[in-house]
């Protein structure tokens, strides 16, 4: 399970404004093997964390390339999943390495959506000269991908902007930080967004989560109904904040749990400029 907040403004008026601000949590079993965010190889072209679970190695939940391709994935909460379905993390890595634009890629994915367990996928082409495009597709929603207009969005383990209480609350906290974004130093903005991602206040009751999750979610509902999930052996193990300013400068900060220990964390920051 995961949660993601996104502010998109493809043509900011002010030089101090951001074209894109993204704050996301990866929720997963603490012992599931993965690599922290880094560039994939010596080319320093694509940056992401990587899943190292046997049979799903190389998939990821969120990544960006210097060419301006960005993708992020959340699972759709289902009481029962198909163990033989395709690995969803490959949907992100395939886009980051493909020549297809975001809409064409999601159109292709939509034709194969039935081969996967439930997912949501955001794909973007961030181009300083031509302008930015962000698209969304969820295989439990509409059959076609959609283009996102400028605005603020929230995504968890249902469809885009589904009014789960934890999503609405997190989006409200995210929006309050965004309002201050032009007055905050880059590193202070990152820290404020990480605070949002680590809010553990449960937003209950929430009949929508209960209805979708059925008996699967009830034992963990009190923990799961918060932006930051903290259950025994499972929960939020990665915070990611991504900032892209008006000039195409990228700041990618990841705070990740070490050794499945909720008291041990490592923070890494990468900065680069999008290629034009």
UniProtKB/TrEMBL annotation:
Any one GO biological process = Golgi organization
Record-level GO cellular component terms: cytosol; Golgi apparatus; mitochondrion
Which InterPro entries does the record match to this protein?
A: TANGO2
Report the coiled-coil segments.
none
Q: What is the organism field in this record? A: Pelodiscus sinensis (Chinese softshell turtle)
Name the UniProt record assigns to this protein: Transport and golgi organization 2 homolog
């Amino acid at each position: 399970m995961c949660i993601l907040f996104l502010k998109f403004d493809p043509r900011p008026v002010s030089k101090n404004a951001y074209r894109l601000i993204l704050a996301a949590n990866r929720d997963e079993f603490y012992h599931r093997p993965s690599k922290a965010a880094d560039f994939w190889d010596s080319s320093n072209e694509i940056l992401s964390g990587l899943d190292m679970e046997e049979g799903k190695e190389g998939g990821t939940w969120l990544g960006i390339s210097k060419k301006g391709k960005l993708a992020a994935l959340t699972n759709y909460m289902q009481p029962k999943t198909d163990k033989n379905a395709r690995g969803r993390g490959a949907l992100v890595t395939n886009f980051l390495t493909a020549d297809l634009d975001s809409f064409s890629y999601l159109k292709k994915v939509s034709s194969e959506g039935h081969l996967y367990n439930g997912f949501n996928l955001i794909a973007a082409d961030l181009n300083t000269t031509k302008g930015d495009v962000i698209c969304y597709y969820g295989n439990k929603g509409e059959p076609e991908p959609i283009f996102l207009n400028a605005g603020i969005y929230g995504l968890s383990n249902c469809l885009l902007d589904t009014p789960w209480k934890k999503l609405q609350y997190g989006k409200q906290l995210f929006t309050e930080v965004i309002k201050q974004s032009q007055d905050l130093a880059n590193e202070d903005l990152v820290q404020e967004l990480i605070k949002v991602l680590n809010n553990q206040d449960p937003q209950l009751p929430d009949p929508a989560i209960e209805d979708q999750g059925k008996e699967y979610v009830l034992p963990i509902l009190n923990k799961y109904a918060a932006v930051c999930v903290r259950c025994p052996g499972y929960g939020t193990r990665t915070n990611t904040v991504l900032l892209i300013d008006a000039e195409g400068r990228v700041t990618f900060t990841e705070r990740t749990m070490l050794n499945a220990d909720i008291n041990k964390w490592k923070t890494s920051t990468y900065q680069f400029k999008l290629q034009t």
